[in-house]
Amino acid sequence: YREWSTAYVNSFRNEAMLGGQPSATNMARAVLRAIHRPNGGIPTTGLRMVDNIPIWGHIFILVRQGYYKEALEVAKGYENVFPRQDLHFVKYFERFITNNNRLPSQDRQRLVAEMKQWNPLTFQDKDLY
Questions:
Q1: φ, ψ for residue 38 (rounded to 5)?
Q2: How far apart are CA 90 and CA 15, in angstroms?
Q3: At the top level of its lineage, which domain of life is listed (predicted)?
Q4: Which residues, at least 6 apart from 128, have a Cβ–Cβ distance to it below 8 Å?
């Protein structure tokens, strides 16, 4: 996925706005700018955005590229803009990362119990990431 990301960013260099020796976080931002570029990219309608970057997409790209610790740091930075139902995301995500990319069974059970209480109607227009 890292190779694909680099190639994709290189094919939309102007839109990606990436230069120098980018960090994993900046590369993820560049990928998202290329994916959601004006005039031909995927629209950002319905995505939760911060500074023109989809927050869940930013975390997703980092995880997909294998940068779990960087994804956690990004998630912590976005924590104050998460919707109410996602307030515990960072807590669970941190436990997932510190346990070798596995959520301990006790936490998994709590998370599933929380998710069962969520209103399914609130997920109709959810962020696709």
A1: -65, 155
A2: 30
A3: Eukaryota
A4: 46, 47
